[in-house]
Structure formats: structure tokens, C-alpha cells
């Protein structure tokens, strides 16, 4: 079965799963949607940008200023409140919501098939959703950053969707949550914390177990390493060897200058540790987005970018020193288009500095590296050192056990089995975050969909004619489960439109 045929069969399967009612079949799957004048059309996705005056602190009655929470909304395909047509809400991540929306094609593609409204609320303190009037004021100190938490973000989504449904007389319309990575964690947690708000959640690449010593600390870097070793043992060995070479060169006279020149850095190299972090980030991100087709999710990259990195490292092996080979490899990640003349190690290309605050408060994900099983230098997680860094940066002490206290994690199988329902945990085993994800079915309605060749929330990306069969099958399984949630919801209502 070819991939193009599989893509066609996927669409056929969706049509077969559609509601049988004549009213429900008015789905403009192939028709031209109407676009109000204030709609934005970007990458074939149409939406309006709106703002909601959001409460800064949902958990006290102390008077605090509100802030404008940005959200994207599309109602082109929504069948309205009378048939209780569904609402699909994506739980915004740690960044600009438009960036996430344009990289979550699966939700947009499902909307006309289910007659659904689509909403992408932005996470507080990211993008344009800034308390205190500006990013500078919001990030000013620990006092102003104090309201940047997962709990507050989930409350934002709950308040926003409740108010929106009330204004549209759509209180009875079922809400399905979607999210990838941190957004996937939020989707799963929201389904558990606010079961009256949403009937189900698709949590893609959601490492909800990467806390409080639930999984082995070296899992993440072992998976990254195995991704590279799977492509080329010699590539793996070269990367493993490079750390000692970098350390040795950096200790020599003018060694840091030599490293800066070799890796085409824009400025001076302060220490070899900065170079370590730059390279480690590249390898980790490459493992996350080792997609089977070209993408621009994090950086412009070719299909199967790890294969291309290792090809560069291995092809330049003969007569070329280790550092030049490593630079040739990581250039696939940092400079695939060839447009960069030099690299600034202080530049954050993903703009996620707010995550530093979250990681220093409640999102404490302990990790370590084992030199015997990974290609990275060995290091152990040291909470004391971690806490000192957070104190120096923000004046706060991390709470490493708070997330598991608030949302659970230990003994998660029995908890979800007894108290959870309607959650899909999807993971690709190439993704290093899958090591902290749920990869086994817990019950009939808390399901794990696992793909061996999948990467970071690949299933949430837009479908293409080049999608491999296993990805097409995974999305079809997700659609079937989501339809089951909605069907079951309708059957529990009296005198309602029956799908």
C-alpha cells in the first residue's frame, strides 16, 4: 500500500465516520469557507484574533489587574449550538500561539469533518498575553512572574471556554482538548482537573511522568543517543569522542578562540560549557523533530535530519579532525539553508525564556546522563546546585514535588484506571520526551498510541500525501476514539441531535 493511497484511505475513513444525520452532513469539507473581513488567512488556516480580559490570579480574592489573553478562533465549519456541535480547544504552549496553531494542522483538518469550532488560547506570559501591560513588566521580578504557573493557565482556559460558550448559548456543546508537548501535558491535566469542562483530551508527546524520579533520570539522553546510534555507530562514536576533544582544546592557550573559530561563533566563547550546551541542544532538538519529511517547526530541516547530520559527520571523517566533523554535522540543524554567517550562542531561536521561570518553580524535570549508555558527557542531577541557580536567577526555590502533588504521577496507572477517562496519550519512540510519557494502555478509555518511528507530536502536524502508512493509521485511530467520545456524550443527553 503506497503512502498516497494510505492518505486517500484516511480521508475516506473520516467520511465514513461522519454523522449520518442530514443536518450533520452539511460539512463544507471541500467547499470554500466564508471569510469575514477581520479574518486572517495564514498557511491555509483561517482565524480571527480576539482578546479576553483574563483574571490574573484565579485562586485568591485579592484585587489584581486583569490582562488581555489572546486567542485564535475559527467558526467557519461550526454547526452551531442547536445540534450541540463540538468545540476543539488547543491548550496553548510556552510560546506565541500563532506559531503553535500553524504547526497543528490535525486540529484544523478535523474541524470540517466534525462540524467543530476551533479555539487556540494563548498561554499567559507568552506571545501577546502579557500581564502588567508589557513583557518587560511581566518578567520584571519574582513578584510579577508569580502567576506564571500551569494551574493558572488551566484556569484561564476553563474560564475562557465557559464564558465563550455562555455568550454563544453553546453550554451543551462538548469540548475536546488537544495539545502537544507541554500543551499535551496541559490537555491531559485539564481533562483530569476539569472533567465538567471537556469530555476528552488528545495529549501528544506529553511527558507527564518526567517529574519527581518517576522515570530513570538518564532516559531522555539515552533516547537521543539511541536515535543517533540507530543511524550510524561511527556518528555516535564521533559525537561521544568530541566532548573530551572540546574540553582539551578549550584548556589550551587561545583554545576558546580556536573553538569559536571552528564553530563559526559570532563572538567570544566564554567557556567550553557554553559550547557543550549549544551542541547538546542541537542533538536533542534533532531527536525531537526527526520527521519523515522536511519541516520548519524548530528550524528549516530536511527529512530525517539525524540521518543527514550523521551523513555529514561520517562523510568528512577521513583527513578531517573531530571538531570540523561535528561542526559540519550540527550545521544541518543551525544552518541548513546556508544563510547564517556565524552563530550567537546567547540567542534563543525559540523565544521560550518564560520556561526558565517555570522550570525553576514547579516544572522541575530531573535528568542525568550516563556515559556508558549515551553519547553525552556524564553528569548527575544535583538538586542543590539546581536550586542555587534558580535562586540566583529569579530569587525562588524550586518545588520538585509540587507537580505530582497537584496533578499526580506516582501510581498513575491505578489512578487513571480508577478516576480517569477519555484521554489519548500519543508518543513516537524517536522523541526523547516519550521516555516521560504514558506508553501503555491504562483502560479502555485512557489509551496509549505508540509509534516506533514517530517524533515529537508528529500526529498533530498537518497531513500530507507523503505521510507514512503508520502515521495515517495513527491519526485514523485518534479520529475514531474522538468520535466515540462525542457519540457517547450525545447519547447521554435527552432530546438531542444524534450523530
UniProtKB/TrEMBL annotation:
<keyword id="KW-0645">Protease</keyword>
<dbReference type="Pfam" id="PF05577">
    <property type="entry name" value="Peptidase_S28"/>
</dbReference>
<comment type="similarity">
    <text>Belongs to the peptidase S28 family.</text>
</comment>
<dbReference type="GO" id="GO:0006508">
    <property type="term" value="P:proteolysis"/>
</dbReference>
<protein>
    <recommendedName>
        <fullName>Lysosomal Pro-X carboxypeptidase</fullName>
    </recommendedName>
</protein>
<dbReference type="InterPro" id="IPR008758">
    <property type="entry name" value="Peptidase_S28"/>
</dbReference>
<keyword id="KW-0378">Hydrolase</keyword>
<dbReference type="GO" id="GO:0005773">
    <property type="term" value="C:vacuole"/>
</dbReference>
<dbReference type="GO" id="GO:0008239">
    <property type="term" value="F:dipeptidyl-peptidase activity"/>
</dbReference>
<dbReference type="GO" id="GO:0070008">
    <property type="term" value="F:serine-type exopeptidase activity"/>
</dbReference>
<dbReference type="InterPro" id="IPR042269">
    <property type="entry name" value="Ser_carbopepase_S28_SKS"/>
</dbReference>
<feature type="signal peptide">
    <location>
        <begin position="1"/>
        <end position="24"/>
    </location>
</feature>
<keyword id="KW-0325">Glycoprotein</keyword>
<dbReference type="InterPro" id="IPR029058">
    <property type="entry name" value="AB_hydrolase_fold"/>
</dbReference>
<keyword id="KW-0732">Signal</keyword>
Amino acid at each position: 500500500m503506497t503512502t498516497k493511497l494510505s492518505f486517500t484511505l484516511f480521508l475516506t475513513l473520516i467520511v465514513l465516520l461522519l454523522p449520518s444525520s442530514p443536518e450533520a452532513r452539511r460539512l463544507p469539507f471541500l467547499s470554500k469557507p466564508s471569510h469575514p473581513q477581520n479574518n486572517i488567512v495564514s498557511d491555509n488556516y483561517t482565524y480571527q484574533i480576539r482578546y479576553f480580559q483574563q483574571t490574573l490570579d484565579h485562586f485568591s480574592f485579592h484585587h489584581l489587574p486583569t490582562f488581555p489573553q489572546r486567542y485564535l478562533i475559527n467558526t467557519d465549519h461550526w454547526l452551531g449550538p442547536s445540534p450541540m456541535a463540538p468545540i476543539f480547544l488547543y491548550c496553548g504552549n510556552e510560546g506565541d500561539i500563532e506559531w503553535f496553531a500553524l504547526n497543528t494542522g490535525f486540529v484544523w483538518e478535523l474541524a470540517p469533518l466534525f462540524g467543530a469550532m476551533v479555539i487556540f488560547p494563548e498561554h499567559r506570559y507568552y506571545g501577546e498575553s502579557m500581564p502588567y501591560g508589557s513583557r518587560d513588566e511581566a518578567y520584571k521580578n519574582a513578584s510579577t512572574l508569580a502567576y506564571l504557573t500551569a494551574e493558572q493557565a488551566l484556569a484561564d482556559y476553563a474560564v475562557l471556554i465557559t464564558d465563550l460558550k455562555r455568550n454563544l448559548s453553546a453550554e451543551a456543546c462538548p469540548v475536546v482538548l488537544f495539545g502537544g508537548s507541554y500543551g499535551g501535558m496541559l490537555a491531559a491535566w485539564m481533562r483530569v482537573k476539569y472533567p465538567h469542562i471537556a469530555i476528552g483530551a488528545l495529549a501528544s508527546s506529553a511527558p507527564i511522568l518526567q517529574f519527581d524520579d518517576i522515570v530513570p533520570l538518564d532516559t531522555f539522553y539515552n533516547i537521543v543517543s539511541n536515535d543517533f546510534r540507530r543511524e550510524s555507530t561511527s556518528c555516535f562514536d564521533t559525537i561521544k569522542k568530541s566532548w573530551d576533544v572540546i574540553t582539551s582544546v578549550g584548556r589550551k592557550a587561545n583554545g576558546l578562540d580556536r573553538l569559536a573559530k571552528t564553530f563559526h561563533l559570532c563572538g567570544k566563547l566564554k567557556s567550553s560549557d557554553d559550547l557543550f550546551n549549544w551542541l547538546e541542544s542541537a542533538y536533542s532538538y534533532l531527536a525531537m523533530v526527526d520527521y519523515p519529511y522536511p519541516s520548519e517547526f524548530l528550524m528549516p530541516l530536511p527529512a530525517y535530519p539525524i540521518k543527514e547530520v550523521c551523513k555529514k559527520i561520517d562523510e568528512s571523517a577521513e583527513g578531517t579532525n573531530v571538531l570540523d566533523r561535528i561542526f559540519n554535522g550540527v550545521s544541518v540543524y543551525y544552518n541548513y539553508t546556508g544563510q547564517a554567517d556565524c552563530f550567537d550562542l546567547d540567542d534563543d531561536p525559540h523565544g521560550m525564556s518564560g520556561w526558565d521561570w517555570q522550570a525553576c518553580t514547579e516544572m522541575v524535570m530531573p535528568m542525568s546522563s550516563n556515559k556508558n549508555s549515551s553519547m553525552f558527557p556524564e553528569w548527575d542531577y544535583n538538586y542543590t546546585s539546581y536550586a542555587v541557580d534558580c535562586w540566583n536567577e529569579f530569587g525562588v526555590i524550586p518545588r520538585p514535588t509540587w507537580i505530582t502533588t497537584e496533578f499526580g504521577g506516582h501510581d498513575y496507572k491505578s489512578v487513571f484506571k480508577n478516576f480517569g477517562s477519555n484521554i489519548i496519550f500519543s508518543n513516537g519512540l524517536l522523541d526523547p520526551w516519550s521516555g516521560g510519557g504514558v506508553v501503555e494502555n491504562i483502560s479502555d478509555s485512557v489509551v496509549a498510541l505508540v509509534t516506533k518511528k514517530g517524533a515529537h507530536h508528529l500526529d498533530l502536524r498537518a497531513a500530507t500525501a507523503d505521510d507514512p502508512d503508520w502515521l495515517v493509521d495513527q491519526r485514523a485511530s485518534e479520529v475514531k476514539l474522538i468520535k466515540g467520545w462525542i457519540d457517547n456524550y450525545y447519547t447521554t443527553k435527552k432530546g438531542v441531535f444524534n450523530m
